[in-house]
Amino acid sequence: MLNDVTNNDLGRTNFVAVTGRDTAERKEKLAEVLRIIEEKRLKVIRVGFVDAHGIVRIRPIEASHFQQAARNGVPFTTAVLAMDTGNFVFKPLFSRDGGFGHEEMGGAGDVLGLPDLGTFRVLPWADRTGWVLCDLFMSNGQSCPFDPRSLMKKAINSLNSRGYSYLGGIEVECHVFRITDPRLNLRDHTQPAPPPSVEPISHGFQHMSDLVYDEVNPIIDPLRDVLHQLGLPLRTIESELGPGQIEITFDPLPDLESADLMALVRTTVKQLAKRRGMVASFMAKPGLPNVFSSGWHLHQSLVDMKSGKNLFSSNETVLSQVGLNFVGGILEHVRAATAFSNPTINGYKRLNANPLTPKRAVWSVDNRAAMCRIIGGPGQKSTHLENRSGEPAANPYLYMASQIFAGLDGTDREIDPGPPLDDPYAQVEKPPLPVSLMEAVASLNDSTFFRETLGSEFVDYYVAMKQHEIQRFLAAVTDWEHLEYFENF
């Protein structure tokens, strides 16, 4: 069926040429990947793309067909682009344009995933299995406007045109629990299905305890081994404050590689945990007793493409003028950008309830209460910005792309963020971060800036997707409501 779809239905034998990517460099990389497939005797390749939620959607194809897939692309139904977080469809898929405004996407037809061969990995935990990420294209060879990875490429191109490249560092928290009941009875197969019953593998609230760290080694040790086998630049894995909570950090990577890393890390942690009788969750604030919330701190700087110099570093001041203006741009557009850094309803339960999270659009020097924390100082080559507001479930491409575009607006317009503030929680005159997804999505919908940079077509799509999710939430009766009203009224 794959052969028929890629060759006959589309009438092409070399789709990569249609997209303008049939280069000598790609051919050389493909030859290298094919050698790995042969040497490792791989039997299946998981060809995937990252949707707007940050979920990796895959087509597992036979390894013997990968050369053809790399040339012709792999079809993905547009249905996966029309689903909210619960996989409920919010678009009229079978209409002429599928609700996407493009006839090529009508009738729940296909978009094509063209593998980015630089992302190819052999999965250490799966039997003779490869994994690769794709960019999405429509059948006419045009980039799919709803592909988050392509949008980050657009942001990087904007950087490159100014002589800059992006350096992104991942510091992310998550929870890993032992499954006590997977809840796989058929009556539990609702949409979405109820999560498993769990218990922590150690007690929490003993931060940096050697004893607690040793208790969580049953997951940390194998995870460390797998991340090294994948060739990822791991810095640390350690136990965090709450029960079952761990934190993972990586060396910074340039441009798209930093977002690709995050996509791979989340799927790796979740799959490895499940195979060991555990469940890993990147949900910001799980609805479990005594569980602490998790965040994703995004470390960022710009690099001069010619000299390799860190453009945020200064010999005289804490932050260079470029860095200062970049911070100014991020603070300027923070309310709309929060729809990307905190894209779930649950993410705001962390921002609102956790006393250690940022509350306002404030920057500071080495103060963890600030949304934008500057790490470094005069003469330090590693000076960079840490955005502490994000949640672990954020789509890495949209989170980073929104930061890049906002920061560039700051450098282009020379936006001054004002002086750094030493007491971020006391700055009541500074703009507050949105307190709900509804607020953030409304700000994004009204943002002419993100409509110009990401494109109105994508913003409308993303807003519609999130509004569908929000409406389902507003229609559901919560435990709080039942407790508050059932007996009292």
Question: What's the arrangement of secondary structure elements?
Answer:
Blueprint: H1 2-9, H2 15-18, H3 24-39, E1 44-50, E2 56-62, H4 66-72, E3 74-77, E4 110-115, E5 121-122, E6 129-137, H5 148-160, E7 164-181, E8 197-200, H6 210-215, H7 217-229, E9 234-239, E10 245-250, E11 253-254, H8 256-275, E12 278-281, E13 296-304, H9 321-332, H10 334-341, H11 347-353, E14 363-365, E15 372-375, E16 384-390, H12 396-413, H13 437-445, H14 448-475, H15 479-485
Parallel strand pairs: 1-6, 14-15
Antiparallel strand pairs: 1-2, 3-4, 4-6, 5-6, 7-8, 7-10, 7-11, 7-12, 7-13, 9-10, 13-16, 15-16
Helix pairs in contact: 5-12, 7-8, 9-12, 10-12, 10-13, 12-14, 13-14
List keywords for this structure.
15 helices; about 35% helix; 2 domains; six-stranded mixed beta sheet; Creatine Kinase, Chain A, domain 2; ten-stranded mixed beta sheet; Ubiquitin-like (UB roll); about 500 residues
How would you describe the overall organization of this protein?
This protein has about 500 residues and is of the alpha+beta class. The protein has two domains: about 1-145, Roll (Ubiquitin-like (UB roll)); about 155-170 and about 245-255 and about 280-485, Creatine Kinase, Chain A, domain 2. Helices cover about 35% and strands about 20% of the residues. It has 15 helices and 16 strands. The protein has helices at about 1-10, 15-20, 25-40, 65-70, 150-160, 210-215, 215-230, 255-275, 320-330, 335-340, 345-355, 395-415, 435-445, 450-475, 480-485, and strands at about 45-50, 55-60, 75, 110-115, 120, 130-135, 165-180, 195-200, 235-240, 245-250, 255, 280, 295-305, 365, 370-375, 385-390. The strands form two sheets. Strands 7, 8, 9, 10, 11, 12, 13, 14, 15 and 16 form a ten-stranded mixed sheet that branches. Strands 1, 2, 3, 4, 5 and 6 form a six-stranded mixed sheet that branches. Strand 15 and strand 16 form a beta hairpin. It is globular and about 60 Å long. The model is unreliable at about 1-10 (pLDDT under 50).
